[in-house]
């Protein structure tokens, strides 16, 4: 399947926007978590929350980018081939991907599945995966509505004009 420069640019743009949105969701998750520490830390909690949010945003953006490449794009292709693309399906797929990526990393490193893993990695992974997937889906829907991207149809060898010659 040949992808022209315009379509490749549109796909790259969608990947970048979904990654950025998912990374921001990760940063926001940890910033809110840091603000919840106000009871324990006191007035320094805002600085801690800001620091946690920025660090989580940086690492989260890298993690979301890897998740989009390793999980999101193949799932998007699968959903398209099955004809079941939609914002709800993408949201569920993003949450599942956000759950699986940190879980697989934890299993591979032998760190085990504990409550701290759930709070520190799986929940923000699910949030950022869902946000990235929804953002991906909305961007696709907007381009389809504007007519700037057509919904590709799987080639049918029997009805392909080149095969009839």
Walk me through this protein's architecture.
By secondary structure, the protein is mostly helical. Helices cover 81% and strands 0% of the residues. The protein has helices at residues 5-36, 38-41, 45-82, 87-109, 115-146, 161-164. The longest helix has 38 residues, at 45-82. It is globular. The model has no long low-confidence stretch (mean pLDDT 80).
Name the shape in a single word: globular
How big is the Rg?
Answer: 19 Å
Number of helices: 6
Give the helix/strand class.
Answer: mainly alpha
Question: Helices and strands, in N-to-C order?
Answer: HHHHHH
Short structural summary:
With 165 residues, the chain is mostly helical. Helices cover 81% and strands 0% of the residues.
Show the helix and strand layout:
Blueprint: H1 5-36, H2 38-41, H3 45-82, H4 87-109, H5 115-146, H6 161-164
Short key terms for the protein model shown above:
globular; 81% helix; 165 residues; 6 helices; mainly alpha
């Amino acid at each position: 399947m040949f992808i022209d420069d315009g379509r490749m640019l549109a796909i790259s743009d969608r990947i970048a926007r979904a990654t950025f949105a998912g990374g921001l969701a990760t940063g926001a998750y940890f910033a809110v978590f840091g603000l919840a520490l106000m009871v324990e830390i006191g007035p320094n909690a805002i600085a801690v929350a800001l620091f946690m949010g920025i660090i989580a945003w940086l690492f989260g953006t890298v993690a979301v980018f890897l998740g989009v490449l390793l999980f999101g794009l193949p799932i998007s292709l699968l959903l398209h081939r099955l004809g079941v693309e939609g914002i709800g399906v993408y949201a569920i797929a993003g949450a599942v991907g956000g759950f699986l990526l940190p879980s697989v990393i934890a299993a591979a490193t032998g760190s085990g599945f504990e409550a701290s893993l759930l709070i520190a990695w799986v929940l923000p992974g699910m949030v950022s995966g869902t946000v990235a997937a929804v953002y991906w889906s909305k961007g696709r829907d907007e381009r389809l509505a504007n007519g700037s991207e057509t919904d590709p149809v799987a080639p049918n060898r029997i009805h392909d004009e080149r095969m009839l010659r």
